[in-house]
Structure prediction request, 684 residues.
Amino acid sequence: MNKNELPLSGETAFIEALAREFGTPPPDVILGIGDDCAALAVDGDRYLLWTVDTMAEGVHFDLSYMSLAQLGWKALAVNVSDIGAMGGEPRYALLSLGWPRNRDRAGALEFAQGLQQAAREFGVAVIGGDTVASPQGVVITLTVTGWVPGSEMVRRSGAQAGDLIYVTGVLGDSAAGLEILKNRVELDSVVKKPLIQAHLTPRPQVPAGRLLARLGLATAMIDLSDGVATDLFHICRASRVGARVKAASVPVSPLVKTAASLLNRDPLDLALKGGEDYQLLFTSPSRKGEALRQAFTQAGLPPPLALGEVTPGDRVLLVTEMGEEDISGAGFDHFRGVSGER
Amino acid sequence: MNKNELPLSGETAFIEALAREFGTPPPDVILGIGDDCAALAVDGDRYLLWTVDTMAEGVHFDLSYMSLAQLGWKALAVNVSDIGAMGGEPRYALLSLGWPRNRDRAGALEFAQGLQQAAREFGVAVIGGDTVASPQGVVITLTVTGWVPGSEMVRRSGAQAGDLIYVTGVLGDSAAGLEILKNRVELDSVVKKPLIQAHLTPRPQVPAGRLLARLGLATAMIDLSDGVATDLFHICRASRVGARVKAASVPVSPLVKTAASLLNRDPLDLALKGGEDYQLLFTSPSRKGEALRQAFTQAGLPPPLALGEVTPGDRVLLVTEMGEEDISGAGFDHFRGVSGER
Prediction:
């Protein structure tokens, strides 16, 4: 294909076009572009996992309904989640902080305190970085490294037709929380608070990711940053398979259902396309369902919830009472803003 | 000191205030905040070096006089320079690319091509990253890792009173190039071209850094991103020493002198405070001058140039015919814009 004709409209196509420029990585690069983290064979049996994520004010967050401490927590959490999605353990972080010239710099300390609170919680040491003036708004880049035993690392690419598709927890809380914040909806705080908290201070599922990796129970895994529709599509594309998600099996909490009805939103839409749940989405052979349930229960973790199965082909289908609908890539695209919400 | 009273006006004070929030790193962190890179003991005798740098349109670069390919080159080069300043060898990079929603995304491919050109030149593999929408202008974050044998790593903190202070090349070319670009000065291209090139496509001095590290000839080292005044201050602060720079010994090329007179600027000012030369500034015992010269000549590198000496105390002094002037921290501060030029 002629480079000038590249379909650059979607984020996946954009990243793939960029990846082509960078060519084939050297052999000590176990995983390059196209997974949650890069992985390097630097130290015998374990791989160094490495990820980077940028969050920009006005695009990824709004300080009118989020404190700087919450932003600090979230900036670390989303990177930690990428390490967890490979079955790894996060260890170190560097911060690149873009701060507007005219903004009170005491706020940067509040941000750092929230970041450090998450770092302590998830066993990460913030060991360096860079501060620069930002032309508009706060721009945060975190880069995090961690470790995974080489034999345990879980990629996006191992899903097989017949595997079941699981998530580590309920979906849509974060999206419902965001809607409540944006629309400043008056809701009982019993409903509102946990949803808002899910959006502002997400908890990456590192223990679940480690457990799945250690026991070899996941064939493919990704963290839910963009929503099931998009993230399952990433697994399917990397694994060269399709998927069928049963609408009736998508785990949505009663809180999301309550909030959705008040917001006049479809709860299933929030759960599948809202994104930012930072639960893990993984595939596992159907015969291992009981082993999965037992392992999670023994580890004191809530058992994973099955919401569909891996199929041959390349389509991601949602099965409802009305039939089948293709939801491939229908989640949040940072550039196209398919979900139209951020 | 009460946290709310922290003097947050300077970049050094700002970074130190942030560093306090992050506390003491674990023992496998050989170097944390306060050097060109963080260093991790992850693999026997060698340390993993790790750095991150953000460049924002309108703050660090202007696309009206710089191509996207040149930006790609420079974004990698400034990170590679940080690895070189520890005596290390750069190996891998992740890119976080913030691209405005309304900007033609074909430009991102041009950027990636320039980045990849530098990556090939400096032996770096770009192995992953992240793309996000930027609220204003292009924002580039690169994070680069590399290796240095643990016994060879050169920090900022080893300078001793009596050491001589060297640079690996002439100074001020980049600052003169920037002034020419900004003021759209008409100059003979024989003068103009190399200065502009020094600004747009700097060459990090990795071979010189490796040589100094391998032979143990540098007691402290930093790369010249902010200018001698600021960067020497960083070495002095980390080493708890002072310095005397002889104005007459500061290496300024005839091209810079020519350009400075046409620009009505002081060439010494461009050389000491302009920044972005990406030469290495290092200290070395005075008795090793001959060994230095020989090693560089044998390696086919231009011999380092001495411009002053390390002293007791904590002041960075410039010695001119008129006497002594304290130039501590008089270089470019990203927030205060002390040099007033960017």
Observations:
- The longest strand of chain B covers residues 89-100.
